[in-house]
Every structure is written in structure tokens, then in C-alpha cells.
Write a structure and sequence with these properties.
Elements (H helix, E strand, L loop, with lengths): L3 E6 L4 H10 L5 E7 L7 H4 L3 E4 L5 H11 L4 E4 L11 H21 L4 E7 L22 H14 L6 E7 L1 E3 L6 H10 L4 E4 L8 E3 H10 L6 E5 L8 H12 L5 E4 L1 H13 L7 H6 L9 H7 L7 H15 L22 H7 L2
Parallel strand pairs: 1-2, 1-4, 2-3, 4-5, 5-6, 6-10, 7-9, 8-11
Length: about 350
């Protein structure tokens, strides 16, 4: 019996490698990874997949991909330009909107049965209601959120031509996630003060990568078009979450509160002169609450998160400590940005005097 092909765009990234590991358990499928990175980073699984180096922004690369493999049973579209200091707005829209349009069009032509897309909760901007759900109006603040809304709008055009499932994810964490979390873990591991805005009393929801992968795989059974919000249960405030990690680490770190107004203004200025690792959305939301009502995804997909934010932050902290010293900065390697450490900028100075 000939194996059916599953495509994972962005499969060499943080979520992608976790998804591929899960998909490899399906013996009747051939997993094809399409990514702009030079090679598949998961050495133990590299020989078990078909790896195609290409760029989602190049229509010719997408066409050649489908020409080579004919059709795919399932497409997991994870490829995305992330909000970091190396991605300008033009590249963000080219990758996230135009690239999605290219892929969706070719998928329809090839009679793809199931198309799964990872969007983001940044599409809500500053939510007009909490918790957010699938009916909360989108109102993105910056280019990344706007590009994800644009990608969703492209997919709506094909909702009657193939099954499409869209997931609006919060920050996805878990073992191996670096990015801004690496800064937090660095401060805690070195017994430095950890800073929060306005007391850190805002409830901020994350989700573990393995729980996301479980939802993505479950959604391949669903016919038609739908959108889901996703997130962990037992959402803590940032102060509570950071304190849990500090206690686990047996760190001497103390949580210090900064006044929201002056801190926001200072961070906004630093972002403008490119001396902050934070983007405008992160600056805007770090003192605000955002969390989702996950009733729909639990009911329709039979999905329930296995890990709380406390679980996943502590697991990732332990992994960070075990591997500390081996990380590279964003832009200094072919690794995914979520597997790299941001440039510290002003935080180097803050850390020195903490």
C-alpha cells in the first residue's frame, strides 16, 4: 500500500519539530517538511522524513513542491515570519499573507483534504472582552497580528473547497522554547531581580507545545471550516507564574514592580531606537491580561490540555539550565527564532544592576 503524504510547512521550527515527532507515529504516512532553514534540526528524526528546503514566499517553490509530490492528504501550515527585530513589516506580510495564499491555492488544485493553520491570539490586539473566544472581534495592533488576520482572510476564500481548521494560539511554550523566556530564565538562574508591570497582577495565558500538537492532529478528522482559540487551564497572573519558577529554581530572585505608564513609555522609546528585545505588541500587553474560553475546542475536538502554564514553564526552565551556554542569538544561526536567544539590548544594563 502506497503511503500518503503529509506536508508540514515550517516543520523545522519549534512547533514543527514537535509535530513531526508525533506524525512519525503514523506508519501509513510519509512526512514531508518544507522549510527555509538549511536542514532539519532534529537529528534523530531527520532520516525518517523527506526534507525540502524552500521559501513560502516564492510561488515557484510551492508549485515545485506539489509537482514533486502530486498531492498531500493533509497540510499543516506552520511557516510564519515571527515578530523579531530581523523581520520588517514587508517581509511579515509577504510570508504570512502572500505565502499562505500561494499554499492554499496549490492545495486546492491538488485536492488536499485537510488544511490546518496556526494563527495567533495577537489578532485580538487589546481584547474588548475577557475571556476571548472565537467570536471576539479581531483588532490587531501591529504587523504580525495584521498579517495573521490577512492569512485567515485568504483561507476563508477557500472554505468551500477543502476542510480548513484555524487555531488562534497564545504564546506557545514547552521544552526547547527560548525567545523571551530565555531572558526570564537567565535572570532567575543568576538570582537577579525579575520585573513586572503594574504589580504583575495580569492573567496571561500560554499553552504547551505538546498540547498544541495534540489539537492540530485531532483537527485532521474535522470536515468543513472552523476557527478555535486554544490555551492552558488554570491561568495564573504573571507574578504568580514567575514566583512558581523562582521557588522551583531555589533562586534568590525577587519580583519587582514597575509603574506601568513610565515603563511603557521607556520601552516604547527603546523599541523605536532598536535597543529593546521586545516588540510593540509585547510591550503593550505585558501589563495586560489575555486569556481564552476554550469550551469550543474541548467540545468539538475532545481536546483537553495536559499541562498548566506552571508545568510547562518549570519543565522548560529545567531544560534551559541543562543546556545553558549552548544557545545562539537570533540572526546568528539558521535556528528558528523561537529556538534562539533574543539580543538583550537595554536588558544587559538592567541585568547588571539587578
Amino acid at each position: 500500500m502506497q503511503k500518503k503524504n503529509i506536508l508540514v510547512t515550517g516543520g523545522a521550527g519549534f512547533v514543527g519539530t514537535h509535530l513531526v515527532e508525533q506524525l512519525l507515529q503514523r506508519k501509513d504516512h510519509n512526512v514531508v517538511v518544507f522549510d527555509k532553514l538549511a536542514a532539519f534540526p532534529d537529528v534523530k528524526n531527520a532520516g525518517k522524513i523527506t526534507y525540502i528546503k524552500g521559501n513560502i514566499t516564492k510561488e515557484s517553490d510551492i508549485k515545485n513542491l506539489f509537482k514533486q509530490f502530486g498531492s498531500f492528504e493533509i497540510v499543516f501550515h506552520l511557516a510564519s515570519e515571527m515578530p523579531n527585530k530581523l523581520a520588517d513589516d514587508k517581509l511579515m506580510f509577504l510570508t504570512n499573507v502572500t505565502g499562505t495564499s500561494f499554499l492554499a491555492r496549490e492545495s486546492v488544485k491538488a485536492s488536499v483534504k485537510s488544511f490546518i493553520f496556526t494563527s495567533s491570539n495577537v489578532t485580538y490586539g487589546i481584547p474588548i472582552q475577557l475571556p476571548v473566544d472565537e467570536n471576539t472581534p479581531v483588532a490587531p495592533l501591529e504587523a504580525y497580528g495584521k498579517s495573521k488576520v490577512g492569512a485567515e482572510e485568504e483561507l476563508v476564500k477557500y472554505k468551500n473547497k477543502m476542510s480548513i481548521q484555524i487555531f488562534r494560539c497564545p504564546v506557545i511554550t514547552g521544552v526547547g522554547r527560548l525567545g523571551l523566556q530565555a531572558i526570564l530564565y537567565g535572570f532567575i538562574s543568576e538570582n537577579k531581580r525579575v520585573y513586572v508591570l503594574g504589580g504583575g497582577k495580569n492573567s496571561y495565558q500560554f499553552v504547551d507545545v505538546d498540547d498544541v500538537v495534540d489539537a492540530l492532529v485531532r483537527s485532521t478528522r474535522i470536515k468543513g471550516f472552523d476557527i478555535y482559540v486554544i490555551g492552558a487551564d488554570k491561568v495564573l497572573t504573571l507574578r504568580q507564574l514567575y514566583q512558581k519558577v523562582i521557588q522551583h529554581a531555589k533562586s534568590r530572585s525577587k519580583i519587582m514592580s514597575l509603574p506601568s505608564g513610565p515603563a511603557f513609555f521607556a520601552l516604547w522609546i527603546l523599541d523605536k531606537i532598536n535597543y529593546s528585545p521586545l516588540g510593540i505588541y509585547q510591550i503593550t500587553m505585558m501589563g495586560r491580561s489575555i486569556y481564552a474560553d476554550t469550551t469550543k475546542i474541548k467540545k468539538k475536538l475532545g481536546w483537553n490540555p495536559k499541562k498548566t502554564n506552571e508545568d510547562t514553564f518549570i519543565e522548560n526552565y529545567d531544560w534551559y539550565i541543562k543546556n545553558k551556554g549552548s544557545f545562539r542569538e537570533i540572526g546568528g544561526t539558521n535556528d528558528s527564532p523561537n529556538r534562539s536567544v533574543p539580543k538583550m539590548g537595554i536588558l544587559n544594563l538592567l541585568k547588571k544592576f539587578s
